[in-house]
Amino acid sequence: MATYYDSIAQQYKKSKLLPFRLHIEAYTYFHLLGELGEKSLLDLACGEGFYTRQFKLQGAGQVVGVEISEKMIELARLEEAREPQNIEYILGDVFELGKIGSFDLVVASYLLNYAQTKEQLLKMCQSIFANLKPGGRFVTINNNDSQPPTSYLSTEKYGFIKSIASPLKEGTPIKYTFTISDSEQQLSFDNYYLGTATYEWAFQNVGFKAVRWQKPIVSPQGVEEFGQEFWQDFLDCVPIVGIECLK
Ligand SMILES: C[S@@+](CC[C@H](N)C(=O)[O-])C[C@H]1O[C@@H](n2cnc3c(N)ncnc32)[C@H](O)[C@@H]1O
User: Fold this and answer.
1) Position 67 in a domain
2) Of the N and C termini of the chain, which has fewer Cβ atoms inside 10 Å?
3) Domain-embedded: residue 18
4) Which residues form the domain of 231?
5) Does 22 fall in a domain?
């Protein structure tokens, strides 16, 4: 199951060290997730387990990670072997996952933005819905498709920019380019544009009762360390977004 992420797994892991990851991405994610105490949790597109491990540390009960890249899963399993947390990692494709359990929470950071068509998005949402208990929640961090391309360069000081080769329409690739500061090396990968209305359609179609969109928020620690002004461009252009769906 070779994927592009096999070749960028190590570099992607480094990109997780950028300050915006901790002070905005993780802070917004955990804000949406709330108390994890003993809840069962399925982490889809878990990558090398960056968040998967944190969910367990924050008190989640059963934790399962699913990821399509063999290299990413290998890194996750290495970490699990080094410091066992009783996390199960499964090599698999969310499109073909089916029902593997009945979880309190299904979570995913940057999964839905890999859907290239509304049919693919629907399929992902069906896998998510099938693995949730009634009353369970799906929480995700995703590319914000509502960000106007005119502000795609505004995030350069946070370590990444986006670009497009053609005007935005359903399925247009949006290229993320990260600069990894210790090496000045660049890391690029594509997400795919689907409009907010398509997302709303897919969530509703599979049966989610309520959907909440959450703009990024900065942690108090991030404000203290860098100052509010440093984060303002990020907050103004809203490159990423949190979403919570209730079954
Ligand atoms: C941007 S990375 C995010 C990884 C992790 N969630 C994080 O935040 O560190 C996106 C991940 O989605 C995985 N992915 C993409 N499509 C997938 C699919 N259909 N099934 C499972 N994983 C997928 C990729 O291999 C990659 O590891």
Assistant:
1) yes
2) N
3) yes
4) 2-144+195-246
5) yes
C-alpha 2 – ligand 1 centre gap (Å)? 13
How far apart are the C-alpha atoms of 131 and 91, rounded to whole Å?
A: 16
Q: In what order do the strands lie in the sheet with 210-214?
A: 87-91, 63-67, 41-44, 103-109, 132-143, 240-246, 210-214
User: What's the CATH number where 37 sits?
Assistant: 3.40.50.150
Structural domain count, the chain: 1
Which of 11, 14, 18, 69 for mutating ligand 1's site (highest number of atoms within 8 Å of CB)? Answer: 69
Tens digit of each residue's pLDDT (9 = 90 or more) over 128-155 = 999 999 999 999 999 999 999 999 999 9
Nearest CA to ligand 1 atom 4: 47
- Dist. CA 85 → ligand 1 center (Å): 21
In tens, the pLDDT along 206-225 reads 999 999 999 999 999 999 99
Q: How far is the CA of 224 from the centre of ligand 1 (A)?
A: 31
